[in-house]
Each structure stands twice: as structure tokens, then as C-alpha cells.
């Protein structure tokens, strides 16, 4: 079940620089507990232990990209019961719709501002009246 | 791998470390890019190399902004797009020299110091909120001729609220100093003998804001030849050695406003190609221009009404719709009769362009448009549109709001006070013994004094304050987020500075004082009542000896009748 509170974020990003600054943004500025993964495979391996409240995925990654990772997380026997957010540098209106259709509750454009990333994520979650219903789409 | 949220370090210093790390890696990345660009230029197109170049650019586009290099990020993004578009259009095998040059240019953006944009904005906000701080304080830098004293001019202009300094040193040294203070709007006043040298240094500067600094010439020789020569050298204004100060002050204001990046604009962009629209959107937005993208022409009219742009930028062919016909349709609505409409089009036939122009648009930008050209073209048109709007709504002598509009502002501010509960003041300002000035020196000098007061107010007040010419020599000012005591202090300073200005008429110099009455807007039921109260306070000030400020209700505290 998606818990009401948003404390734990599973973050998947292949670029170590971006991972480092996002860690700062999410942990120190945003106040989240964060599990950093450098690939979709690692996310699959970590998610059960970490039990995140939200999954944050970079779209463009070598090997398994963001959408494929989301699909893989969903395809686990227990599925994915928490909201997902994408991050991407190539933000076109059509793409946002595409990611929404995949069930993401929102897309955060890159480059992001490390000082407001946490707020952006909270705003996306708060805009969702019922995060569970979105999983059904 | 799991980080405890309690583990906090010094965020900004860690951020700075990360920035540095990014800069190092990005520098390596750029070197790789340059190497690949050279390889392609010399050995021809290679699909694998191109893909690698695009991937690297994409990474930069998505990350540079986060680390404080937004310019680099935007440039990488637009370059990535350009290369992809070239590949898609079948031009793939040719990598244009332009692309290679642009890749080389990326390096300079990494070398320029990172701009922590968000922090700057936050700082600007706090200073603006300080009561009595000024809106746009213009820096005036005077380059003197040898053995000429210009301190008097610096002093005189300082009285108008400019930050004035006479510069010492060689041309190169002066420009170097100016290059360190590009954050403010600067206007250079330059003695004619030094213009050529200063211009050369300006043009040679690597900083765009320095190259674009406006320059006003001060010359002893006011002949046609001399003026023509200064215009040819690139001066933006021309004044004699003893310039008419109010006029000079006005020109400085105008130039500073025109050049400053604060000249922003609002643009509605009608474009059905999302790729292009996104590109224009990013280019314009990174130049500080607000853009509203309309993809479906059916939504154009409603977006115009809600967004209220300065100009309309429109593709000529929008699927089944013609931009030319849409322009005509927009003009059906009288409120958009004067809205500048500009086509973005690949139409380069002058006859066809003219035909389209005759049907309601104002101008063509022929595709492909370079980013820099688009920004400049849009900015200047937004500026002109705003100038036109000013002409219609502003008092012609002072450039301030007309009577009816400033009264409306008082009313609007009262509504805002009710909503947010903040204090706000309204101030009525009047020149003392103004009739005598007109009678003694003539109306021309009277007008000069009025203009000088208008400029002083503009320079001393915040951007959010509203200033209007209420009557002949009466001005009305609305000060949001400013209680009556702060307003009293502010206008005491203004009255003081204004009384120190000297005017020259009939071969004698004279000074003028002003009186001001202040009232708290939020104490009244209507804006008109507040204005009346300020007017009464002004009347009390006049009876109490003029030259100063009275707040409505002061007399009750001071007790005892004033006769």
C-alpha cells in the first residue's frame, strides 16, 4: 500500500555526478531517506529491502532505460504500489503525456534545481488525489 | 547506500564541491567533443561518432543547469537538436562548420563563472522588499577628457538618483573596471576626444553586456560634422559640454532601460511543430522573455485574452490554417488592433511577404532564425510595443501614469491590502510656489522642473511603486508594503534631494522645494477617500511652511492650532 507519508525515495540514475547532487538535494535539502541506484537492475535488487514511498527514475540510461525499469518493477509478482516520477532532459509535451500514460504521476525536467527538487516531488505527490488509482491506468 | 536524513553537512559548500567536480568532468567532455568535431570535419561524417557527440551533448543539456551553468546547458541542448535535425533531414553526412564552431564555443561558457541563478533571484527579492530601496538604480560612468573637471557633473547627476563616478585611468583600464560591474544597468558618458578609444575597448570586450553598454558623447563641438562623426563611432546620445541636465538624465534613463535585461517581454507563439516551438520557447525563455505556446489556432483568441502578450509570433502555415488569415481574424477584435504580429516563415519571396504584410502582420522573420537574432528581434519589438503602450497611457511630459490610471492604482492597491492585510501608503506631492517659477522664468522652465521631479521620483522609488501625474504640478504615488512612517522617511529624503537640484533660467540659477502629504490606504473605505486624506495632509504641510512631509493625523498628536 502506498503510505500517506512521503519519506523514502528510490532513485535510479546512471550518471554519478547527477546522483551525487541529487543525493544532496533529496537527503540534505529535501529531508528524504534515499536509496541511490545506478541502474534499473540495481533498483530491482534493492526495492524489496528499501520499501520506498516513491520511485524516481531517469529516463535515458544505458541498458535498461527509465520506462523499461518502471515496467520491470511493475512486472514483479507483487507489482509496484507506490507512485513513480520520471526525470528527463528532453521535455516535450507529447512525452509528458506518454510518461503519464505509463502511470508516472509526473515528470521533472532536467536540469533540476537542487534546492527545490524535494519540493517539486512533494508538489507532484500532493497533486494526486489518490495515488493508487493511477496504477490502474 | 541508505542515507539518514539527519546526516546533514554544509549544503552550499558541498554543492560548490559538486559543481567543481562537474566542471572538471564537463571540461573533459568538451575536449572530447572538440576532438570528435575535428575528426568529422577532417575525415567526414561517421554515424558512431555522431551518436556519441549527441549523447554527450544530451548529458550536458540535462545536467549543466543543475550545477550552475545554465547557459552551457541551453547551448548544448540547442546544439543537440540542431545536429539531430540535420541528421533527420538527410544532411547527415555534412557536419556544418557552424556546428563545429558552436561546439568550440561551449568551452567559453564553462569558463565563465557559474551563475547560481536561484540565489541571485532570492537576493534581488530581499533587497526589493526593503522599504524605500530603489527600483532600477542606473550607474553612470563618466570618462573625462584630459584636464577637464567632471566632478560637478557627477554631483549634479547624483542628485537625480544615479550612481555616478568619474573614471580615472586609460581606456583599457576603465573598460576593465566596467567589466567587473556588469550586474547593474550602466551608461557611459564620454568626452568626445576619448570616444574612439573607449569604443574600441568596448567592442573588443569578450563580455556581451560590456559590448552593448550605451555610450553618450559629451562634446564641445556641436557642429553637424562633429555629430555625424560621433554617430559613426557608435555613440547613442550627443550632448554639449554643459548639457541640459533634465534632458541628459532622461536620455540616461531611456538608454539604461532599453539595454537592460529587464526589458522583458511577453510573447504568444503560434507554432504547430512541437520541436520548433520547444526550441523557440527555450531560447526566448532563457533570455527572460515569457512565452505562451499556442499549438492549436482555435485556442489563440482565448490565450491572447488571458496572457496579454506584447507581441504575437506566428508561423505562416499552421496545418489547415493560414497565419495570414489568423492575423486578420485577430485584428477583428479592436483590443488587438495595435498588437504587433510577426511571422516566422520560410517565405523569402518579397512579393509574397508584402502581400502577407498588407493583410495584417507587421513583419517577417525568415526561417531559419539564429537564436541570438530571434532574441534580439523579439526583445526590441517588445520594447517598442511597451513604448507605444506607454505613449497611450502615460503623461507625455513626464512619462508617468495619467490621472485616471494612478487613481485606479490606488483603488487596486486598497483591494490588495484588504486581501493580504499589508500596509500601503498613498502620497500626494506638490511643487512649492510653482506658479512663480512659471511666471518668472516661463513655462519651458516650469516643464523642466516638473520633468526633474518625475525623474527623481522614478529613480528613488521601487519598481513596485506606482507614480502618476495627478494635475499640473501635483503627483500621486502609491507605495505598496510601506507604512506611513516609512513613507514619511522616504519622502523626507526625496524632498531633501530635490531641494538640492539647481535649475538654470534667465541666466540665474534657482532651486525648488516640494511638499508631500501621506495617508495609509488601508484606513479608508475607497481609494478616493485615501487620496483625499493625502490631499488634506498636503494642505496642512503647505500651511505649516511647505518643504517637507506631513502624515494625515499628525496635527492631532502635535495639538495646538497651526495658523
From TrEMBL, chain A:
An annotated GO BP: phosphorelay signal transduction system
Pfam families, A to Z: Response_reg
Classification via SMART domains: REC (SM00448)
Residues with 4-aspartylphosphate modification: 58
Source organism of this protein record: Marinobacter persicus
Xref: InterPro entries: Bact_response_regulator, CheY-like_superfamily, Sig_transdc_resp-reg_receiver
Protein name: Response regulator receiver domain-containing protein
Keyword annotations of the record: Phosphoprotein
Domain annotation Response regulatory: ranges: 8-125
TrEMBL record, chain B:
SMART domains xref list: GGDEF, REC
Modified sites of kind 4-aspartylphosphate: 315
Residues with PTM Phosphohistidine: 58
Molecular function in Gene Ontology: diguanylate cyclase activity; protein kinase activity
PROSITE patterns for the chain: GGDEF, HPT, RESPONSE_REGULATORY
Domain Response regulatory: 266-382
GGDEF domain ranges (all copies): 422-554
The protein's Enzyme Commission number: 2.7.7.65
Alphabetical GO biological process terms: cell adhesion involved in single-species biofilm formation; negative regulation of bacterial-type flagellum-dependent cell motility; phosphorelay signal transduction system
Top-level EC class: transferase
SUPFAM superfamilies: CheY-like, Histidine-containing phosphotransfer domain, HPT domain, Nucleotide cyclase
NCBIfam families on file: GGDEF
Pfam families named among the record's database cross-references: GGDEF, Hpt, Response_reg
Annotated source species: Marinobacter persicus
Keyword Protein transport appears in the UniProt entry: no
Catalytic activity: 2 GTP = 3',3'-c-di-GMP + 2 diphosphate
Alphabetical UniProt keywords: Phosphoprotein, Two-component regulatory system
HPt domain mapped to chain residues: 11-113
Cofactor requirement: Mg(2+)
Protein name: diguanylate cyclase
GO cellular component terms given for this protein: plasma membrane
Amino acid at each position: 500500500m502506498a503510505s500517506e507519508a512521503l519519506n523514502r525515495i528510490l532513485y535510479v540514475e546512471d550518471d554519478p555526478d547527477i546522483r551525487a547532487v541529487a543525493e544532496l538535494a533529496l537527503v540534505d535539502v529535501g529531508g528524504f531517506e534515499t536509496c541511490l541506484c545506478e541502474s534499473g537492475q540495481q533498483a530491482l535488487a534493492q526495492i524489496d529491502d528499501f520499501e520506498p514511498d516513491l520511485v524516481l527514475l531517469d529516463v535515458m540510461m544505458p541498458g535498461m532505460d527509465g520506462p523499461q525499469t518502471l515496467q520491470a518493477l511493475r512486472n514483479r509478482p507483487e507489482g509496484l504500489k507506490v507512485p513513480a516520477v520520471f526525470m528527463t532532459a528532453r521535455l516535450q509535451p507529447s512525452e509528458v503525456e506518454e510518461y503519464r500514460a505509463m502511470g508516472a504521476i509526473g515528470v521533472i525536467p532536467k536540469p533540476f534545481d537542487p534546492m527545490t527538487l524535494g519540493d517539486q516531488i512533494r508538489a507532484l505527490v500532493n497533486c494526486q488525489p489518490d495515488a493508487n488509482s493511477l496504477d490502474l491506468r | 547506500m541508505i542515507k539518514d536524513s539527519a546526516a546533514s553537512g554544509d549544503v552550499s559548500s558541498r554543492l560548490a564541491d559538486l559543481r567543481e567536480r562537474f566542471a572538471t568532468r564537463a571540461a573533459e567532455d568538451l575536449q572530447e567533443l572538440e576532438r570528435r568535431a575535428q575528426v568529422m570535419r577532417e575525415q567526414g561524417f561517421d554515424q558512431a561518432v555522431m551518436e556519441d557527440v549527441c549523447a554527450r551533448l544530451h548529458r550536458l543539456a540535462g545536467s549543466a543547469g543543475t550545477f550552475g551553468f545554465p547557459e552551457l546547458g541551453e547551448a548544448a541542448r540547442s546544439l543537440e537538436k540542431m545536429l539531430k535535425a540535420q541528421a533527420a533531414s538527410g544532411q547527415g553526412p555534412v557536419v556544418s562548420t557552424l556546428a563545429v564552431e558552436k561546439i568550440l564555443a561551449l568551452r567559453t561558457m564553462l569558463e565563465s563563472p557559474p551563475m547560481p541563478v536561484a540565489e541571485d533571484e532570492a537576493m534581488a527579492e530581499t533587497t526589493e522588499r526593503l522599504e524605500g530601496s530603489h527600483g532600477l538604480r542606473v550607474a553612470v560612468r563618466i570618462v573625462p577628457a584630459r584636464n577637464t573637471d567632471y566632478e560637478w557633473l557627477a554631483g549634479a547627476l547624483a542628485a537625480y538618483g544615479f550612481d555616478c563616478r568619474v573614471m580615472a585611468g586609460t581606456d583599457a583600464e576603465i573598460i576593465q573596471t566596467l567589466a567587473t560591474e556588469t550586474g547593474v544597468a550602466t551608461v557611459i558618458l564620454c568626452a568626445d576626444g576619448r570616444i574612439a578609444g573607449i569604443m574600441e575597448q568596448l567592442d573588443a570586450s569578450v563580455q556581451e553586456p560590456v559590448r552593448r553598454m550605451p555610450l553618450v558623447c559629451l562634446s564641445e563641438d556641436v557642429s553637424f560634422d562633429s555629430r555625424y562623426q560621433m554617430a559613426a563611432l557608435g555613440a547613442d546620445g550627443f550632448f554639449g559640454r554643459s548639457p541640459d541636465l533634465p534632458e541628459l538624465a532622461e536620455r540616461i534613463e531611456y538608454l539604461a532601460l532599453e539595454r537592460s535585461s529587464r526589458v522583458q517581454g511577453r510573447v504568444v507563439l503560434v507554432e504547430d511543430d512541437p520541436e520548433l516551438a520547444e526550441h523557440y520557447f527555450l531560447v526566448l525563455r532563457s533570455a527572460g522573455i515569457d512565452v505562451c505556446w499556442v499549438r492549436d489556432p482555435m485556442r489563440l483568441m482565448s490565450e491572447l485574452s488571458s496572457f496579454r502578450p506584447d507581441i504575437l509570433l506566428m508561423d505562416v502555415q499552421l496545418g489547415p490554417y493560414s497565419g495570414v488569415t489568423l492575423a486578420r481574424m485577430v485584428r477583428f477584435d479592436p483590443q488587438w488592433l495595435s498588437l504587433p504580429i510577426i511571422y516566422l516563415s520560410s517565405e523569402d519571396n518579397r512579393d509574397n511577404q508584402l502581400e502577407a504584410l498588407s493583410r495584417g502582420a507587421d513583419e517577417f522573420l525568415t526561417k531559419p532564425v539564429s537564436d541570438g537574432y530571434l532574441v534580439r528581434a523579439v526583445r526590441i519589438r517588445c520594447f517598442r510595443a511597451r513604448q507605444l503602450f506607454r505613449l497611450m497611457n502615460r503623461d507625455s511630459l513626464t512619462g508617468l501614469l495619467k490621472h485616471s490610471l494612478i487613481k485606479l492604482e490606488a483603488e487596486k492597491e486598497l483591494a490588495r491590502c484588504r486581501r493580504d492585510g499589508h500596509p500601503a501608503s498613498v502620497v500626494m506631492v506638490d511643487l512649492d510656489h510653482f506658479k512663480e517659477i512659471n511666471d518668472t522664468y516661463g513655462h519651458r522652465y516650469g516643464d523642466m522642473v516638473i520633468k526633474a521631479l518625475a525623474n527623481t521620483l522614478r529613480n528613488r522609488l521601487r519598481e513596485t511603486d506606482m507614480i502618476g501625474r495627478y494635475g499640473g504640478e501635483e503627483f500621486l504615488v502609491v507605495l505598496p508594503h510601506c507604512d506611513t512612517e516609512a513613507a514619511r522617511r522616504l519622502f523626507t529624503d526625496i524632498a531633501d534631494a530635490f531641494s538640492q537640484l539647481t535649475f538654470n533660467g534667465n541666466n540665474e540659477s534657482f532651486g525648488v522645494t516640494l511638499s508631500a502629504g501621506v495617508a495609509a490606504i488601508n484606513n479608508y473605505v475607497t481609494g478616493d477617500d485615501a487620496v483625499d486624506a493625502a490631499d488634506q495632509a498636503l494642505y496642512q504641510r503647505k500651511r505649516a511652511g511647505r518643504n517637507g512631509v506631513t502624515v494625515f493625523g499628525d496635527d492631532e498628536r502635535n495639538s495646538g492650532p497651526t495658523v
